[in-house]
Amino acid sequence: MIPRDHPRYESLITREKLVEGMKAGITAIEGLIAHGRGEAFDYILGEKTRDFALKAEKAATAMLLLAKNPVISVNGNTAVLVPKEIGELAKLVNAKVEVNVFHYSEERVRKIADYLSKFGISALFAGDAVLEGLSSSRRIVDKRGIYSADVVLVPLEDGDRCEILKRHGKKVIAIDLNPLSRTSRMADITIVDNITRAIAKMCEFAKDLRNLSKEELEKIVAGYDNKKILGEAIEGIIEYLENAKKLL
Ligand code: ATP
Ligand code: MG
User: Which sign does the torsion angle of CA 190, 193, 196, 199 carry?
Assistant: First the structure.
């Protein structure tokens, strides 16, 4: 048991969820390493949702609301960290949820879908279509989901797939704590925030933005500049580190 008053309680609970997920065959061992990279960036971002993330979360939610066939792609880490929030966001923006993993096995995909079903999510995982041009298992998709989607939300993405999704004409929203990653630079909207905070924030935005007209939503998306946001994220890290140095 992790004591509630531990100064790093949130972070330790998150790690525990991933370890449990791994033991249950949902999270890949490699997922634990990927999380470590994310944590390191979160640390030097101050472990808070910053302004640049809020702007991206708002624009991303507007983009999902405008989409014809929005899909939320879920991997092993996302499934164990924010299943409830994913279910809520999917309902609010009327998106499908699809299981899509880098380390593929039919068994693992089924386990993730079973786990999500406990949270009221009926995830797609037919694996009946292929994203041409992609060599990793991420290429295996569902015809009704990512294959035919116009907007895809890809938390914790690998750069390769992001590139291919773009080449297939899709709009890509990434959640990645690393503003320097290929994924971050390739996506249309990059949310530099921890997934443990980002999806819940998007749910809050969705509740408000749902009431806006198509034109108002389009204005939000048109006013968004991903390069500028990534620049602000990098500035945010620099600022955090400079302050930390001053406090020595
Ligand atoms: P590239 O995008 O440059 O190809 P990569 O795909 O090799 O990078 P991975 O380590 O495979 O990078 O992907 C994991 C990414 O997910 C990392 O960039 C990490 O910052 C991010 N990440 C991990 N855990 C979280 C989390 N909880 N919330 C947000 N982002 C996270
Ligand atoms: Mg990446």
Answer: negative
